[in-house]
Every structure is written in structure tokens, then in C-alpha cells.
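The material for today's practical consists of a large collection of protein records. Read left to right, the C-alpha cells trace the chain's path through space. An example says more than a description, so a record of this kind follows:
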Amino acid sequence: MKYFEYGDREIGFFDMTITISSMIIGVGVITLPRDLAKTVESSDGWISLLFAGLIAAGCAWTLAYIATHFSKQGYYRYATAAVTKPIAIFALLSLALYFILFTAFEIRAIANISKQYLFENTPVEVISLTFLIVVIYAVTGSRVGLIRLNILFIPIVIFITILVLLFSLGIADSKDLKPFFITDLKSLTVGMKNSTFSFLGFEVILFYISLMNRPQHAPKAAVIGVFLPVILYTAIYLVCVGVFSQMALQEITYPAVELAKEMQIPGEFFERFESIFFTIWIMAVFTTTFMAYDCAVYALYSVFPKRKHVTWIFILSPIIYLTCMFPKNLTDFSKYSMYISYIGVVVSILFPIIIHVIAKVRGVKSDVV
């Protein structure tokens, strides 16, 4: 009898590629067109997106390459051998903190947008708690099962997004995309920085590499996993500029959702497609959130293995809820998002690179044959 391919506890190249894409695609794309419109002139934001994507892909490849060296022993053991146990604990706890903040950010973001478009009379606190409970239920399940859930959800999300883009082309004006290449280098750099933060999420490779049956393919999977959101984000941005114009786009809080509201379907078959679009997009945010939560638990369990997986989930749940309720308004929430991005760059990219360099110098045992 042939062994059931998806009944095992390992993931392959395709699974990892979709996992990284699913982790990146979240609430960032809903507000990114507005942020770019405030920074660059005309439709030059695609330049910032392209270079940001190249930077993110380079960082993803680097992290994946580093992760192949501890695909069996795990990040914690590798770091302990390289920089001593106390520093390794600090690195893992910092990474856990980052993923806790990441989870809280996604939950609060989806609550804010849901209140505006779906549940106008429901308090943000109730929406956040409800979404968190669903995420907790997901995280208590199998880790491989969660990753396989990405393969189920991501085609639906991409299909609906492409549908919105196609039906929006009819109301887009190509004149709003012109002129090209008029933004100064400083503004493009600022836009590139903001766009790069939107592509964070590939750092899950540090933990999920241990699930791969062929870890040597992780770098390639990471690069492809980053470029899929880059293409999607660029397409959404250009269509938003074409539909709303660069000046009007600066005043729209959630351009991607508004794009679904403006799209025209022949025959007026749907009148409120933005509700369908946003409901489907919740699936993308859901996968991002439960993976961030899972990675936070993964990091803590690596350092403190005596406590059960489920125990860490319930310990973190009130912390995440209180953290997501901390921002009082959209301004505070925007600052909160920026702080998380800076923390992520330091603890999930710089720390692993430094640890790997020290490991190489000290001749630490690697899992690479």
C-alpha cells in the first residue's frame, strides 16, 4: 500500500513556499498603497516595491541558508553551541516577543478593519477576542496541519484578489499612472523601507525548517515565497493608483478594500463585493496570525521544554489580547506597527546572521552534509 503523502509529519518544497507567502500576505497590503502614495509621486511606488522585494528575497534566502545548518538540531541548540546558553536564551526569548507582538498586531488590525466594514456596532474588544479564540483553537492543533491549511486557503485568496483586479481595470485610468520616474531617490528609499517591512514574515523558516523533508531546498522556497506577494502587492498598488489617482489614494485608509467596493461586475451580480473580498482576506490574515502565534510558542517551548505546548498557548493568550488592545487610536497603532518591524529586523534577521557567523568561526557542528 502506498503511504499517504499528506498524512506524514513532514513538509516539502511546495508546502514551504506557500507557507512563506501566506505568512507575508496579511493586513499590510490593505494599507500599503496609501502609505506609498503619501511617499512617492505618481505611480513610482512600484519601484520601491520591486527593490523592497529584492531586499526581502535576499534576507529570506540568507535566513533559509542559515536555517539549513540547524534543520535537525533546532535554532536553540545551534545558538547555544555558538554563543553560550544565556545569549541563546535571550535570542529565542526576543524572537518569541517579536512573534507575540506580531500576533497582537494582526489581531488588532483585523478587528479595526472588521469594525469599519462588517461589524459597525460591535466593540473592537469583542471582535479581537473572538478572532483570538479562533486562532487559539487553530494553534492547539497539529503544526503540520496548520501549514497544510495554507495550501487550502491561499488559492482562494489569490483568486478573489485577481478577480477584484480584473474587474477594476475597467474603471482604472492609465493617465493616473503617468508620468513615470519623477520621484526623488530619498522618497523612493522611504517607500522602499516601508514596503520591506510589509514583506516580513519569511522568518518563520527559522522554526519550520525542521519540518522539511529536504531542507536543502529551503533557500529556493523562501525566495519564491517572497516574490509571490511582491507580484501581488505591486499589482494591487498599480490598480489602486489607476482607479483612485495618487492624490486621492493618500486619503483612503484601506485602499484594497475600497477597490473591491468600486469594482464593477457586469450585470450588477454583486452590489457589495467588498464584504466578500474582506471576508476572504480574513482567511489570509488568519493564516498569518496562527503561524506567528505558533512560532512564539515554538520559541518558548525550545527554551522551556518542560511545559507542554498547550500550556504555552494559554499562557500567551491573555498577554496577546492585552497587547493588541494597547494602541488607543490609528496613530498609536501605526507607531506600534513600525516598532514591531524594527524589532523583527533585529531579532529575526540580524541575530541569526551574527549567531551563524560566530558558529562558523567556532566550528560549531552543522546539519549540512
Remarks:
- The radius of gyration is 21 Å.
- The first helix runs from residue 13 to 24.
- Confidence is low (pLDDT under 50) at residues 1-6.
- The domain at 11-345 is CATH 1.20.1740.10 (Amino acid/polyamine transporter I).
